[in-house]
Amino acid sequence: MACKYVRIAGNRRQVGVALGKLARPIMGSYLEQSGTWEALRPWRGHPFVDELAQQTQAALPEIWDEFEGLAEGLRMPLKDVLLWHCRGDLLHSTTDGCTSAALRTADGTRWIGHNEDGDPYLYGRCHLVDVALDDAPGYLSFYYPGSLPGHTFAANRVGLVQTINNLRTRQRHAGVPRMFAARAVLDCTTLDEAVALLHDLPHAGGFHHTLGAASDPRLLSAEVTPGSVSIQEIGRRYGHANHMVHAATRGQAQIVTDSSRARQNRIEGLVDGWLPESGSADMLAALLDTEGKLPILRTAKDDPDDENTLATAMFEITDEAVVLRVYDRKARADIALDVMSDPE
């Protein structure tokens, strides 16, 4: 199974502590084998990291409370946990990949699909966390050990859906680290609120957000980088890998890996071939596609970006409900949950 389902409830700090405790058993071994963690160590104690912390505390105090609880639950120094959360803002390239797709079917249903690609060490070691908060909608999210939820695939209890793709921008600005911004989106209740948040926050790093909501017929593609936020409304179909493709952002300095280029070309080709009657089965087949030397579904031990597909998510969005199905490299779902219904 790609991930195990866990329920968590409480205030901000309590939720953070529970998330930290969940990750504590493997966090040491995870970081020990991580080349990303090794690359981050020269940033320990750097004033720039302190500035990122200050900007986050000022802009997102509630998320910072969760983060402090996470460090407490992990029993790790807060500054080390912060450094880990800033990995994509400090390093131009990290082992975070992903491919997302979106589709609007003839009956008005919106679909968002996503391959969560990351450190192969984490395959089978992640969780799907179902979080109930005292002061926010609560959410379901794929959870990397020791990282705030939200920067993977997730949906909140009012039906806002978000999937995240890594962008390897060469910019490095003072602002809110991208993982904190992605977590903050899950506290929003509408697409417009999420878009306003992304526009208003000062961004330290870059992510691509695919956004949808039960309360809104739109599907949105957002490329968010330091100093630039590009929002495009998705028509009937869409695919996105790990580099900027919007006209407003693709000219920015970035790293485009061979895998990202190959997956972008492949997902665009598959998406362009979808017919008016195409549906969720076609999207799932695209995410599980193994065509080519650098395929969309990534299982190779010698993947050039050191990434493998850890889970595949399919969100079915209607005006009344959001259903999440999670797949483990196959066409049968391991987990199926109605996000907007009260958990039993």
TrEMBL record:
Gene3D superfamilies attached to this UniProt entry: Penicillin V Acylase, Chain A
Xref: InterPro entries: C45_proenzyme-like, Peptidase_C45, Peptidase_C45_hydrolase
Superkingdom classification of source: Bacteria
Domain Peptidase C45 hydrolase: 107-326
PANTHER family registered for this protein in UniProt: BETA-ALANYL-DOPAMINE_CARCININE HYDROLASE, PEPTIDASE C45
NCBIfam families in the record: C45_proenzyme
UniProt protein name: Peptidase C45 hydrolase domain-containing protein
The organism's taxonomic lineage, starting at the top: Bacteria, Pseudomonadati, Pseudomonadota, Betaproteobacteria, Burkholderiales
